[in-house]
Design brief:
It contains eleven helices and 19 strands. The protein is α/β, with parallel strands linked by helices. The protein has a single domain, classed as Alkaline Phosphatase, subunit A. A hairpin with a 2-residue loop joins strand 18 and strand 19.
Length: about 450
């Protein structure tokens, strides 16, 4: 064997070595930056289709057979005996039409969303594991209803960081106080800095919502910085004594973020900067039923445009066991116009291509009722609809199906874990690799389940 190296071989090997050294140096610098600021933008696992997420949470469970899952058989059998003899089948209360060039069926209940049919990807074969509000909402947000787990928003922030260090990376606008409360946007065992920032709550109009501790009328910025530096030095000293306590680091990061937010968040939340035409498009105005939700949707657009990674807006309360027609129409009057305006606004600004919008509740509703007036629907976890738009999904597309009456999903079924896996995939994250070691094992949002629904990807 010839042990001598030619000049060409030596230079080639040395060049490769320099490349490895450069890569190692870049990796080390990236790791140092992440250690110094855990919220700094991070490299995704693969090329993302979406850079950000807006979740339109329809709390309580909209009826799929009254919105996006057309059931002519159910309508023909209105009032007939259901599976259970004590119950009767209930036809949809609204007319249905095929919309857009795609011909997607959408009911007249949601006329503004119907105008965007060609952008919607309807998951008509959704199913989940439980049909009670609190555990089902926790399952929707965290992937678990039996144990406290990090919220999807916390996982996304942990995996990707945020693009604007002066704003929270994850915001929950008007979240519910009950049905899991702060657990729906909490970090659980993830470091505390990944918790979502709540703005207001479900009982407070977002116009009146305040975020505490981001302004001080008594101290100027320089004095506040000096005061904060003293407090942070004490916090860091405490953290060095107990490096395993992530809550201390979370406090440090939250104080720094609150200081930075003073300069930018008030401006982002100031809707007076928007034109009268934009406010009107979102249904914002005194006395309008859509005013509060319209403000939430417009805030969501302003936030993701400013670099916030994930925003959730929340409506109450699609839970019409009785008075189905009046109740669902009231919820539609609150949410439909703002959602239509949000989709139009994102599209006009070129944001819909890389913003994933998700609409839906924690479960669906039954096609039958025990009520004699046939004006109600009960909880149904076995089959329901959600839709996605933008961010790399097929538009004007319906995937999956429930049976002819809408009792349960029977074709191309999508479980909650599959939905989570798909959302993460679109954001550039592999749900099997997005893990955090806690109590001796690696946890993930999808636990040991979930598949990416490749069929809906554009």
């Amino acid at each position: 064997m010839n042990s001598q190296l030619s000049r060409r071989s030596l230079l080639s090997a040395a060049t490769c070595g320099l490349g490895y050294l450069a890569f190692a140096n870049l990796a080390a610098r990236d790791a140092q930056a992440t250690a110094a600021n855990p919220l700094a933008p991070k490299q995704p696992h693969h090329t993302p289709r979406a850079r950000r997420l807006i979740f339109l949470h329809m709390r309580g469970g909209p009826a799929h057979m009254d919105s996006f899952d057309y059931k002519p058989e159910l309508n023909q059998r209105d009032g007939q005996e259901a599976k259970a003899k004590s119950r009767k089948l209930v036809a949809s209360k609204w007319d249905w039409k095929q919309r857009g060039q795609s011909g997607l069926w959408v009911s007249d209940l949601l006329k503004h969303q119907a105008e965007h049919a060609d952008d919607l990807c309807v998951l008509a074969g959704m199913h989940t594991d439980i049909a009670n509000h609190t555990p089902a909402m926790l399952y929707l947000h965290t992937g678990s209803f039996a144990f406290t787990r990090p919220s999807m928003g916390a996982w996304i922030l942990y995996g990707l960081g945020t693009e604007n260090q002066n704003l929270p990376g994850f915001v929950s606008i008007c979240p519910p106080i009950i049905n899991g409360g702060s657990k729906n946007y909490g970090p659980a065992f993830l470091p505390a800095m990944y918790q979502g920032q709540a703005i207001g709550d479900i009982k407070t109009n977002v116009r009146d919502a305040q975020i505490g501790n981001i302004s001080n009328p008594l101290l100027d910025t320089k004095t506040q910085r000096s005061q904060l530096d003293l407090v942070q030095s004490l916090n860091r000293e405490l953290g060095e004594r107990d490096p395993q306590d992530s809550q201390i680091d979370g406090v440090i990061q939250s104080y720094e973020l609150a200081f930075r937010m003073q300069a930018e968040l008030p401006s982002v939340m100031d809707l007076h900067q928007e034109t009268a035409a934009t406010l009107d498009a979102y249904g914002i105005g005194d006395g309008k039923p859509s005013d509060n939700f319209g403000r939430q949707c417009l805030l969501a657009r302003r936030m993701i445009e400013s670099g916030v990674r994930h925003v959730e807006v929340c409506d109450e309360f699609w839970d019409q066991h009785g008075e189905l027609k009046n109740g669902h129409e009231a919820r539609a009057a609150t949410t439909d116009q703002p959602i239509g305006a949000l989709l139009s606004d994102l599209k006009q600004r070129g944001l819909l291509e890389d913003t994933l919008v998700v609409w839906g509740g924690e479960f669906g509703r039954t096609p039958d009722t025990a009520r004699k007036d046939l004006d109600g629907r009960d909880h149904n976890a076995n089959g329901y609809c959600m839709w996605l738009a933008g961010g790399g999904v097929k538009g004007g597309f319906k995937y999956g199906a429930t049976d002819e009456l809408g009792y349960e999903s029977v074709e191309d079924r999508v479980h909650m874990h599959d939905l989570h896996a798909t959302i993460l995939h679109l954001l550039g994250l592999d749900h099997t690799k997005l893990t955090y070691r806690y109590a001796g094992r690696d946890f993930r949002l999808t636990d040991v389940h979930g598949r990416v629904v490749d069929q809906i990807l554009s």
